[in-house]
Amino acid sequence: MTVKINKLEIENTKRVKAVMLEPSASGLTVLGGRNNQGKSSVLDAIAWALGGNRKRPSQANREGSMSDPYLKVELSNGLIVERKGKNSDLKVTDPSGDKAGQNLLDSFVSELAIDLPKFMDSTAKEKADTLLQIIGVGDQLAQLEKEEQEKANQRLYTGQEARSKRAHANELPEYPDAPNDYIKASDLVNQQQEILARNGANQQKRNQAKQLADQFANQKYLIEQKENELARIQQELSDMKAKHTETATDLENANKTAAQLQDESTAEIEASIAEIETINDKVRTNAEKAMAEDEALRLENQYKALNQDIEDIRQSKMELLNNANLPLSGLSVVDSEITYQGQKWDNMSGSQQLIVAVSIVRKLNPECGFVLIDKLEQMDIETMQEFGQWLEQEQLQAIATRVSGGEECTIIIQDGMVVDDNPTPVAEVPVQDTNTWKGGF
User: Fold this and answer.
1) Basic and acidic residues compositional bias: what residue ranges (predicted)?
2) Could you tell me if 10 and 88 lie in one domain?
3) Phi-psi bin for 90: left (phi > 0), alpha (psi -120 to 50), beta?
């Protein structure tokens, strides 16, 4: 059951001489009058009566009064709250006559209900934090927002690196005719040495063939000499012929082999050795381009993955808020700011701001069914009436002040006293706002 104010009596407090008021059980009770007549003093007195000495005005006694302040508030739960005497001692009496104290009042009186400006004047983030803590998702949402910011920072850095790598890769030339690996001069020199070794072996075989040719000519000469001495050296001649025949065969074979030999050219390797740095520069450039493209692709894929991570976190935040027990339909938190019907606080109308604030105050302590609102003149009549209709719809009680003497005021206060004993009710105006409280109240 929500607790509301049934009746209040205030005497000699701040600018109030004597005010007795029975506010409407729901909707707006508007205290009208000129400036400095005691309207705000009524709200300050209620806050003091219910909120304790921390809400005591710095100059509580009415100037010029010989009597002490007297406060009496009768609540819908049957409690009677009084402050009287020189020290304005608190007295809380329940319906059975038992006495209680400030702790009992604190259990159902919301601090923001008696000090709404504390919420209204807070920063956008403080408002959002208040709401999130009330609905129990503040820590979770803060963690998600921290993760989102970290991912966003990482994505920004990754995107910059990816663009830099991609630009670097695009600027580098490419040499399709260059080999895949670097050329080593030692490998080319070894190849050259192998060819030279084979060519040297060929030369040795040529030299051997020439030696055999010279040997053959010399043997032929000796044969001719021996033939002149045939009688004496017949046997020797026969041996030489045999040897000559053998040598001839070797010579024929050697000539055939020598004719078939072909020296290998080292010109290509020599050219490669001369151009090795040029070729290796091309290989190095190709390798750098490939590495830059690979790094750019890796960073681009990482950027896409971070994008998805951020979207997942944002979806988690939306699901967290959608599943939370928010106090008002259309109310949410986006980027650490409260939004209502898609509008941030500074874009809300005055009535929307009050609706949001009162909704959050009620959620903070559902047992507190009233709220005090000062300076309602910021609203035009129609907007104020719409706000009053919303309060009635939600069965909430609001006691507000307005610098006015018009019919929209419930009572008029002049010189610290009520001058209109027949309050005029606020005219009814069709309400466009059909938002209702969510479950939990």
Assistant:
1) 162-171
2) yes
3) beta
